């Protein structure tokens, strides 16, 4: 319990640090949100109208006063309202976040289901044809930018072969089959980097475990190679793989913006890009804090999983 309490306390402190950094960084960005909101057709807005809007939005108050009000609202779970359309930030995030999480989860399942078996087989048959081919593919995927892969998937599978739709979104409740079909290509684009990273880490971890004394002992006792790998190699190799997987899943939360844009998937990327362009402070802060909080939550879950995989960690 002490281990869990310590990890939760650290996560809460990090959320406060991220909130503070994001708040101060946004207020240091050149540009006045009131002027941006009132500007039409490239013309300069009326200074009196700008001053009135700044007062109504609370932007004329000292920065520390705004910060104090921001932290107080955040402690109550209030992310404020958008400066652009006066829509609650929390409602916009709750509408779009499940779509982003669905995309990340689908990409993670695709990556793990392919990378882990491939890495284990490659490590057991290290130096063979499959190992060399799989390692080469992983290196290529690691270097290939996600927007390039997304564009290639659309060009080949949607435009040339016409096997898949180029992009879009249909609610699952409305048409489950169409929804999953539209999800497949962006999920593959999300999975490519994660699959390459998990493959390389898992292969190295399995190779390391195969050289351990307890594995040699298990073989000497006459256990079959399949049972040795399953019971004595894979589980111990999962600790470093879990570390990488947790970090990469957190990174995917911030890295799906390009994928959602390329495939027109209506997740958090659309309101985030619009909010940055219009200096919509509450929307930017709300989305960044949501992504950061989920990142920390994933890492907390990984820390707790370590304690399950290796009980010595919880006692440290």
TrEMBL record:
It comes from the Bacteria. Its main location: membrane. PROSITE patterns: ABC_TM1 (PS50928). One of its GO terms (cellular component) is plasma membrane. Residues 97-306 form the ABC transmembrane type-1 domain. Keywords: Cell membrane, Membrane, Transmembrane, Transmembrane helix, Transport. GO terms for molecular function: dipeptide transmembrane transporter activity. It is a multi-pass membrane protein. SUPFAM superfamilies: MetI-like. The chain crosses the membrane at residues 7-29, 103-124, 136-160, 180-202, 237-263, 283-309. It is found in: Cell membrane. PANTHER family: DIPEPTIDE TRANSPORT SYSTEM PERMEASE PROTEIN DPPB-RELATED. Belongs to the binding-protein-dependent transport system permease family. This is Glutathione ABC transporter permease GsiC. It comes from Falsiroseomonas bella.
């Amino acid at each position: 319990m002490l281990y869990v309490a310590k990890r939760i306390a650290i996560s809460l402190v990090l959320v406060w640090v991220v909130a503070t950094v994001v708040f101060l960084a946004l207020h240091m960005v050149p540009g006045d949100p009131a002027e941006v909101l009132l500007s039409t057709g490239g013309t300069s807005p009326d200074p009196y109208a700008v001053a009135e809007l700044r007062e109504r939005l609370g932007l004329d108050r000292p920065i520390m006063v705004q910060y104090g009000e921001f932290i107080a609202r955040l402690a109550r779970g209030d992310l404020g309202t958008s400066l652009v359309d006066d829509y609650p930030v929390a409602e916009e995030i709750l509408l779009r976040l499940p779509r982003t999480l669905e995309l990340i989860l689908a990409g993670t399942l695709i990556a793990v289901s392919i990378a882990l078996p491939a890495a284990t087989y490659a490590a057991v048959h290290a130096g063979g044809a499959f190992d060399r081919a799989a390692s080469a593919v992983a290196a290529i995927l690691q270097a290939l930018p996600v927007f390039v892969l997304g564009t290639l998937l659309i060009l080949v599978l949607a435009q040339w072969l016409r096997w898949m739709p180029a992009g879009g979104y249909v609610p699952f409740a409305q048409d489950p089959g169409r929804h999953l079909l539209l999800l497949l290509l962006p999920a593959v684009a999300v999975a490519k980097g994660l699959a390459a990273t998990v493959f390389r880490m898992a292969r190295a971890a399995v190779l390391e475990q195969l050289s351990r004394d307890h594995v040699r002992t298990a073989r000497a006792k006459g256990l079959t190679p399949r049972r040795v790998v399953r019971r004595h190699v894979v589980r111990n190799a999962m600790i470093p793989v879990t570390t990488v997987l947790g970090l990469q899943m957190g990174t995917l939360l911030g890295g799906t913006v390009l994928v959602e844009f390329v495939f027109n998937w209506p997740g958090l990327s659309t309101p985030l890009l619009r909010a940055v362009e219009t200096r919509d402070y509450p929307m930017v802060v709300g989305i960044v804090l949501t992504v950061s909080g989920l990142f920390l939550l994933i890492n907390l879950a990984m820390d707790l999983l370590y304690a399950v995989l290796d009980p010595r960690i919880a006692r440290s």
